[in-house]
Amino acid sequence: MTKQQTLRIALAGGGAFGAKHAAALRRIEGVELAAVVSSSPESGRRFAAEQGVARAAADLDEVLAMDDVDAVVLATPTPMHAAQTLACLAAGKHVQVEIPVAASLPDAEACVAAAESTGLVAMAGHTRRFNPSHQWINRRVRAGEFALQQLDVQTYFFRRSNLNALGRQRSWTDHLLWHHAAHTVDLFAHQTGSPIVQANAVQGPVHPELGIAMDMSIQLKAASGAICTLSLSFNNNGPLGTFFRYIGDTGTYLARYDDLVTGEDEPIDVSGIDVSLDGIELQDREFVAAIREGREPNASLAQVLPCYRTLAGLEQQLAAAPVIA
Q1: Could you identify which of 24, 84, 165, 215 might form a hypothetical disulfide with 16, taking C-beta atoms 3.0 to 4.6 angstroms apart as the criterion?
Q2: DSSP letter, residue 209
């Protein structure tokens, strides 16, 4: 594909993240949002109208049969990710799947194998790699100006009922380990440039209706010697989101999504790090660029697979631990 050709991308998923991807793709030159798929034909038509897209497909199979669709972005429920990724690759479509790639290691490995056999661009939505705040840290690490000693992360939400980011009822249940912890597990290895060699986890009581642990604590150690402490909760009724404290040999930095400050709360200007401050847009730009340039993208399925190996090990630890109801 040449840089002059229009890249036609279909979007599966009409929820909160689907809307974010739709907005991001509209800002990328030479990209056409060719079709959308949602949970039902009615919601698909509504989402298409909201996003100004001409076609609303009844299901993903309909999109995969379209000759004028080059690639697909999957912003669908987690249980669908692996099967839909495999379907996209089998249909000859480049694919970007939102985090997590899968909810099991065998499924993640199957997706990586399919990507390798087809030679198509297959990328995961590990957005933290693209947020300018984290890119700023990464560049200092790569330049030898900052050696990470400890990463302290808090991922806090208030989800005692099964609602999505828009406050709407979900048809599936989110997961602290396979979804939210995946962001930090991958980011820690990416920022240190070093594989994770030790991982431990404990979790709190399992919710009687949702069937998931609502609180979790994870410890990681990289081969470089750096450590990470991750606290996660769906019980937190306070400031929501994920907050990162980078402690290193030459400074301390706090990242709150796209904002970055020093340990003394002095703002750091990250506006010049990339063409946008929107991590989703930067993620989508990388997907588009990799397709156009015929190269492996940052956050390819192969690059993030070690994260899912770590998650699988943590899941085994938690399964072997006594269950607290």
Answers
A1: 165
A2: T
Model confidence pLDDT, tens digit, residues 145-166? 999 999 999 999 887 776 655 5
Question: Mean pLDDT throughout 243-263?
Answer: 95
Beta bridge partners of 95: 72, 122
Average pLDDT of the residues in 294-317: 98
Same-domain status, 76 and 183: no
179 within 8 A of 187, measured Cβ to Cβ: no
Query: Which whole number is the average pLDDT over 63-80?
Result: 96
Q: Which domain holds residue 67?
A: 7-127+279-300
* Mean pLDDT to the nearest integer, 54-72: 94
- The number of domains in the chain is 2
Q: Sort strands 196-203 and 215-222 into parallel, antiparallel or unpaired.
A: antiparallel
Whole-number pLDDT of residue 166: 57
Question: What per-residue confidence (pLDDT) applies to 240?
Answer: 87
Number of residues in the chain:
325
Q: Which amino acid is at 15?
A: G
- Specify the pTM: 0.93
How far apart, in whole angstroms, are the C-alpha atoms of residue 148 and residue 250? Answer: 9
CA angle 313, 104, 156 (to 5 degrees): 75
CA-to-CA distance for 236 and 216, rounded, in angstroms?
12
Q: What is the DSSP string of 53-91?
A: -S-EESSHHHHHT-TT--EEEE-S-GGGHHHHHHHHHHT
Q: Which CATH number goes with the domain that contains 248?
A: 3.30.360.10
Q: Are residues 52 and 185 in the same domain?
A: no
Domain membership flag for residue 325 = no
The per-residue pLDDT for range 117-126, each reduced to its tens digit, is 999 999 999 9
* 242 contact partners, CB below 8 Å, separation of at least 6: 153, 154, 155, 156, 180, 183, 184, 257
Which amino acid does the sequence have at 124?
A
d(CA 194, CA 225): 9
* pLDDT value for 169: 67
